[in-house]
Write a structure and sequence with these properties.
about 200 residues; alpha/beta; 5-stranded parallel β-sheet; globular
Length: about 200
């Protein structure tokens, strides 16, 4: 097989192995956040930050849910990184936003954060803070051994089918899962543009 054929076969296998029950659980967790008037904060780094930005648009526009991504505010993000350090940027942002028990935090990440390995310690700090205030925690991640998987009330783990492609598959399937979520009947409140054209 060519590389392209192998990669597409891996993607098909991930689709086959995605845990539908975990996705349903995450959909319901997010619907509960919206029902109680909570806000959704979507956290991601690198490619996952870009996914977070796109997902914020979809949750706001399609689901009528107040949603934010701290990485959309590049001025605050870089000021906090420069002045206070990378590990606290999300935690500090959530504190200023007065994160509370009604709210939800959704993590898009390959590993989900690991302080010991110094990978995305900012996610770990943010989730520790979210836990301390009782906010709902969800995740769409690529590894089961990170901090997000340990503390999330609902977590979708993108199955690993090739250790050489964990990052691209995790970030690609974040998009598959969040598009499924914003289309899910428990969350969707508005018709998308092309589907509304008859």
């Amino acid at each position: 097989m060519t590389f392209t054929e192998e990669y597409l076969a891996e993607s098909a296998e991930i689709l086959r192995r995605l845990d539908a029950g975990a996705i349903e659980k995450l959909a319901n967790l997010l619907a509960e956040v919206r029902a109680r008037g909570g806000r959704l904060f979507i956290l991601g780094v690198g490619g996952s930050a870009a996914n977070a930005s796109h997902a914020v648009n979809d949750f706001r526009k399609i689901c009528g849910m107040e949603a934010y991504a701290p990485t959309d505010n590049v001025s605050e993000l870089t000021a906090r990184t420069n002045d206070e350090g990378w590990a606290s940027v999300f935690d500090a942002w959530l504190r200023v936003s007065r994160l509370q028990a009604a709210d939800g935090v959704l993590v898009f990440s390959v590993g989900g954060g690991n302080r010991e390995k110094q990978v995305s310690p900012n996610l770990v700090s943010a989730l520790e803070y979210a836990k301390s205030v009782g906010a709902a925690i969800g995740g769409v991640i690529g590894r089961a051994d990170g901090y997000t998987a340990q503390v999330a009330g609902a977590c979708v783990i993108v199955p690993q089918v090739n250790p050489a492609h964990v990052t691209p598959h995790a970030e690609a399937f974040q998009a598959v899962v969040w598009h499924l979520l914003v289309t899910h009947p428990v969350l969707k409140t508005a018709e998308t543009r092309w589907e509304s054209l008859r």
